[in-house]
Amino acid sequence: MFTVASADINLWIAGLLWPLTRILALITAAPIFGNKAVPARIKVALGVGLAVIVAPAVPAWPAVDPMSYAGLLILMQEMLIGLAMGFSIRIIFAAVEMAGEVASLTMGLGFATFFDPNTQGRSSAISQFLSLVATMAFLAVNAHLVLLSALVESFSTLPVSSLPVYGGGFKQMADWGGKIFSVGVQLSLPIVAALLITNVALGILTRAAPQLNLFGIGFPITLGVGLLVVALSLPYLGMPIQNLLLDGVERARLMPRTWSQRQPVAKPTQPALAAPSLGP
């Protein structure tokens, strides 16, 4: 008679539940996969399919009841790892969108905002345009496939364990978030520089001819110059955006290696030796 113990059932559930949590967390946070236009059923089906494929190759997981307190902590830790890996790619897209926001404000397109279903907020027209360019570059270099490969590799680099992850990985994640501001300014720098020169020229022109209406001619000129610079600089944005995306995927690949340094267990302190007596 074939019998199955409850411990074996819990072990099978944990072997599928914990990898599935990391995979679904990455799918939720990563661009393209976590897009609002993708139905939730497709995301869950993709996560379950990847978990079924990955689970047999996952190293031995801890024999912990998934419904226990320790099992819930492992579940939260796996979710945190997946979110961090997806967030590392999301930072690159946020940097590109910030470049579009800076360019739009400099051009005078701050009023031309649209509802962005991904962020549940409003973004400018140039920001959405650059975001679409980054999305096409993300698919063109097969970064989505490399990201899934890094996810599968993370189960060997950072296996499922009941030990907490290394806390220094959070600081590195915060440092990586600084890319939003540095990359955003660098990508928008040609447009900002061209519009700065345009505004200086308009200031000199209005100083030489005060009868000109600055508000009447300034906006069309700055808008036209901004769109012209965007069109001229677009062919040169492919390589920087591609390098940024590959850098983000590499960061997602190296992040589990950083967190694989488990927190050291505190060693028991040895009792102090008693001072020798000097005799009666």
What does this entry show, briefly?
With 280 residues, this protein is mostly helical. It has helices spanning 6-29, 40-54, 69-107, 125-140, 143-157, 168-177, 179-208, 214-233, 238-259, and strands at 113-116, 121-124.
Question: What do these coordinates show?
Answer:
The protein has nine helices and two strands. It has helices at about 5-30, 40-55, 70-105, 125-140, 145-155, 170-175, 180-210, 215-235, 240-260; strands spanning about 115, 120-125. Strand 1 (about 115) and strand 2 (about 120-125) form a beta hairpin. Helix 3 (about 70-105) crosses helix 4 (about 125-140) and helix 7 packs across helix 8. The model is unreliable at about 265-280 (pLDDT under 50). Keywords: Bacterial flagellum, Cell membrane, Cell projection, Cilium, Flagellum, Membrane, Transmembrane, Transmembrane helix. Role in flagellar biosynthesis.
